[in-house]
Amino acid sequence: MIKYLFYLCCCIAVLNSCNKKLELGLITEKAMVVSARVEASEIGAAILKKGGNAYDVMVATHFALAVVHPVAGNIGGGGFMVYRNNDGTKGALDFREKAPITAHKDMYLDSLGNFIKNKSVLGAHAVGIPGSVAGVVEVHQKLGSLPFSELVQPAIDLAKNGILITEKQADDLNNATARFRKVNNYKTVFDKEWKADDVLIQNDLAQTLERIRDFGRDGFYKGKTAELFVNYITELGGIITYKDLEKYEAIWRKPIEFTYKNHNIISMTLPASGGICLAQILKSIAPYDLSKIKHNSTEYIQLLTEAERRAYADRAHYLGDIDFVDVPLDSLISPAYINKRMSDFSWDKATPSTTVSHGKILGYESDETTHYSIVDQFGNAVAVTTTLNTGYGSKVLVKGAGFFLNNEMDDFSSKPGVPNVYGLVGSKANAIAPEKRMLSSMTPTIIEKDGKLKMVVGTPGGSTIITSVLQNIINVVDYNMGMQASVNQPRFHHQWLPDVIRMEPNGFNHNTKTNLNNLGYDILERNSLIIGRVDAILVLPNGKLEAGADKRGDDAAVGF
Ligand code: DON
User: Fold this and answer.
1) Which of the listed residues 95, 168, 442, 555 should we mutate to test ligand 1's pocket, taking the one with most ligand atoms within 8 A of CB?
2) How far away, in angstroms, is 70 Cα from ligand 1 center?
3) What DSSP string runs through 163-195?
4) Residue located nearest, by CA, to atom 1 of ligand 1
5) Quick one: which atom of ligand 1 is closest to the CA of 367?
6) Per-residue burial over 23-42, b = 16 or more CB atoms within 10 Å of its CB, e = otherwise
7) Would the CB of 458 count as within 6 Å of ligand 1?
8) Is the minimum distance from the CB of 389 to ligand 1 under 6 angstroms?
């Protein structure tokens, strides 16, 4: 019997250590790229090996993702980038899409003022002016070191030579076929029954990338590409003009910076709501001693949910494009305001969202994205989240130019109280106006500790982006997890409205869920529910880098 028990203990110990090993991400000495596809990460890592810096890698990885990850990687969308140089200087670039010049507040309402379902999601009317190419070119001009053409070429080769479709991609593409057909007036290259290991060749896209390689931003916003773009949008009844394309500019912004338990968090500012909501939530939970609260326990989920509920209520009311509306940024993250917001939180029962509105500010008037994280051998770090909004965006594939256009117009609040595809509601602050940028949840984030780089993180996931980044920060900072272990944790999400905690299936203890129900929390758990695809890098105490590449997708890390 004793012998049997001994063997059992040994087996359990071996299994435990295997599990821990399985939870370890790729570890490299000094440089790494983590992205949604191995081909894109490999292209980025090859640029690092050539001596390129993190900004060169951003250019190469971004264009590669536009080829190998068409569901979200893009040149027809937009995004946000946060960076930290090895000398500690930091910055952020906003290459978010903007509304066309002739857009107007009620453009998705019918004559009776009712919201026209799908007009902001599917087809030419859903498209915002893309910012990706302007953004990537801007980053290269300011911070890159290798010739631009060398950074675009690998993506061109990939588009011409073809990529192997993964099983997940085949499913995604097959699910979207009917909508590709509905929206486009020709048979697109994506229009077939896909299976794993099929080859996808994108010659039109390769030619567009060649024009970008040769003429930089003018290869996209002017000349042949612009002509194909505007002609096709016009053919489909859309409102984007040459002037819209010509006028697009990416904007350098000051990132949001705040401290959480001796860590300095640097994240994206408006028109991305990620940084500000993250600051609100982390500051709301900071007074609680998480070392006494078990990870993913009833109390843990309760605390985060209540902080999230209040932050998302503020998001809906106050946040919009800071170049168009007055947003009380400092007040929203001030300690006095945050304390007041959490003052009605009770461990005894849920605070129903119907009783939570936005807080009062004194003196104030008034299903695809992708993220990649980069650390180079020089110590520079880059976090980029970029998107077409939902998978393949508006499903419009520019005829002759081979790239999908976003459906980012749906991120505006088309009508107060009417939720967008992510269930987010908004107010005047996020109403449509000509050339305004729609509010985003994207949260590319970099973390420093003791003045040194500690972590680079971000994810897709619409409204769940903020809470996925949040949980990964807490996993590492409060629960001391490694990067891959953190990314592997099951995730949950609350966003004020609808008043429900979304949970990934099979990740949470049955008793925990019962306890939460008894406290008044509604839980939504669906088999297919995936919350985010986090791609992150952690600097280990010995200076090496550990990847967290999300197994929820085809994500992969490459480095040396
Ligand atoms: O900017 C935003 O918040 C959304 N357009 C992001 C969409 C997204 O993450 C979809 N991915 N799963």
Assistant:
1) 442
2) 15
3) EEPPHHHHHHHHHHHHHHHHH-SS--TT-S---
4) 440
5) 12
6) bebbbbeebbbbbbbbbbbb
7) no
8) yes
Paired tokens of 390: 């939902």
Burial class (CB in 10 A: 0-12, 13-18, 19+), 518: exposed
Tokens 């705040």 belong to residue: 258
Give whole-number Cα distances, 74 to 371, 381, 486, in Å.
12, 21, 28
Q: Does residue 467 contact residue 491 with C-beta atoms inside 8 Å?
A: yes
Q: Whose CA is nearest to atom 9 of ligand 1?
A: 462
Say what the pTM is: 0.95
Point out the ligand 1 atom lying closest to the alpha carbon of residue 273: 3
Q: Which protein residue has the closest C-alpha to ligand 1 atom 8?
A: 462
Residues noted as catalytic: 369
Please state whether 109 falls in left (phi above 0), alpha (psi between -120 and 50) or beta: beta
SS3 state of residue 76: coil
Q: Is 440 in the pocket of ligand 1 (CB under 6 A)?
A: yes
Q: Which of 24-38, 75-89, 415-429, 471-485 has the lowest mean pLDDT?
A: 415-429
Distance CA 464, CA 291 (A): 25
**What element of type H or E holds 549?**
strand 545-549
Question: Regarding beta strands 256-260 and 263-267, do their DSSP bridges make them parallel or antiparallel, or are they unpaired?
Answer: antiparallel
**Directed axis angle between helix 132-143 and helix 54-68, to 10°?**
160
- In this structure, the strands spanning 523-525 and 501-503 are parallel
Instruction: Kindly state if the Cβ of 430 falls inside 6 Å of ligand 1.
Output: no
Q: What is the pLDDT of residues 239-298, one digit of tens each?
A: 999 999 999 999 999 999 999 999 999 999 999 999 999 999 999 999 999 999 999 999
Residue type for position 131: G
Give the SS3 label for residue 478: coil
